[in-house]
Write a structure and sequence with these properties.
The protein is α+β, with helices and mostly antiparallel strands. It is 58% helix and 20% strand. It has a single domain (17-91), classed as 2-Layer Sandwich (Ribosomal Protein L30, Chain: A).
């Protein structure tokens, strides 16, 4: 019985962990498209912040664009993939 409780709590902890969503620089999206996509889909991301994130990704190769729970990261990931952006997610 102790093992069941442990594995349930481990599964619950993984679901409750924070995730980071990364934007990667690529050669097929314009800066304007990236900025528009971030501005439209990332919560609390105004145009100025979207421009900053796009510039950082352009110069450094990637940038964390959002941190959150598993479900919201998955939704954002799929949305940005549909927009054609190069993104990835990892948990912290």
């Amino acid at each position: 019985m102790g093992q069941n409780t442990s594995s349930k709590s481990t599964t619950k902890n993984k679901r409750n962990r924070k995730w980071q969503l990364y934007l990667f620089n690529d050669n097929h999206n314009s800066m304007e498209h990236v900025v528009d996509s971030l501005n439209m889909h990332i919560p609390m991301c105004n145009r100025y912040r979207a421009e900053q994130l796009a510039i950082i990704a352009h110069h450094q190769g990637h940038v964390v664009i959002y941190e959150g729970g598993n479900t919201e990261i998955l939704i954002l990931y799929n949305t940005l993939i549909q927009e054609g952006l190069t993104v990835d997610a990892t948990f912290i």
